Predict the structure of Hsp20 family protein.
Amino acid sequence: MKLISQEFLHNIAPQLNLLNTLGGGVAQPQVRVQKREQGVVIRVSAPSVRPETFHVVLNNNRLDVFAEYRHAAEEQLVAPLFVQTFELPVELDLTRIDAEHEGHELRVRIPYQDPTTNHREINIRRR
């Protein structure tokens, strides 16, 4: 005699995962920051996280990288899987940030600013 059907288990598993996440369980991505000659590359490896759940948000010099869990795409109930915040130094060009997801890894590239664009002589007005 079967007490629990396969269909029931299939339907309840995402809700249990969501409740675990809401109860404090989180995904543990591997985050690496690489300084290169051209700029900085932030790599976030999270094999169990789908690419469409990643978000990269820039607010002034603060970069938030996070992923969220939704049981269905149209569902309103959302739980964070992980959040990583980076305080970006002033020598990075925040207007040229690039992000891409390939395989199981999100890569965010932030180039350094061109040092010649910040150096200019200021005209002195005469009265």
User: Anything to note?
Assistant: Residues 6-22 form the longest helix (17 residues). The chain has a mean pLDDT of 81. Strands lie at 30-35, 39-45, 54-59, 62-69, 79-87, 98-102, 105-111.
